[in-house]
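Worked example

This section walks through a single chain of length 260. The input is the sequence exactly as stored; nothing has been trimmed or padded.
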Amino acid sequence: MQTYIILMVLAVIGGTLFDVWHKKSAKYFSENTERGKRNSKREVSSSERTGMIVETIKSEVLTSSEFSNPKRRLSHLMTMYGFIIFVATTAIMIFAYPTAANDTPAIWPLFWHLGALSLCVGGYWFWFAIRVDVAAEGHPWYKINPRSDMFILSLLATCTFALLWSISGGVGLFFVLFIASATFLFTTVIWSKFAHMFFKPAAAFEKRVVQADGSNDGLPGDFDLTSKEVQDKFPDIPTYMGETPAEMGPGIRREPARHY
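Given that input, the structure is written out below as tokens.
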């Protein structure tokens, strides 16, 4: 099993690197960074960047604060931390206690089961009730899009069969399905959402940098439409919206968030 774990780690690394090359993600981030430097209005200090890294880790990585829907956020956190605990305890038990002669402390199997259970609760909650196809577009939960759903389904299958294998006392069929699901999960990185966990923090950090240095990714800033200075700069505002433009309203926040 140690060899299998190493092969799966290599599969994830290889798949992620191939994804970076195939989608030109590294090239995009590099070019975007250079463009931001050219358009920046001030220099962002190293201490500011460090603070942004900490804030990105705290908000986008550890607490997933980008989710407006609290149910979606909780589901994501249960799935994410369940997966981390499940994978970490699996590696600990396989590498630190590889044979029956090694007594595995009870704490590790306990956390292994809790991690798998947390992932299943968060994942199935997402699949049956929260995902946008079901919650917003009214599609039945059993309508599957192979490319977009392979990640969550293989993730759920891995932990579901792992729990069934454990609860059943080691039935061989469940173990085979567990390993098959895990293999599919870790070897399909280039087609699934697996690699996004590495790109999302990078994109969130870059967004903070471009907002701080004033380049703002080439986007215009926020304007007070009632300001005389703004109306002089954009003289068509009074023409189309009057001298005191009304507040445009809550827009997409008019209703509770029901998106991914």
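What to look for: The two ends are 35 Å apart (CA to CA).
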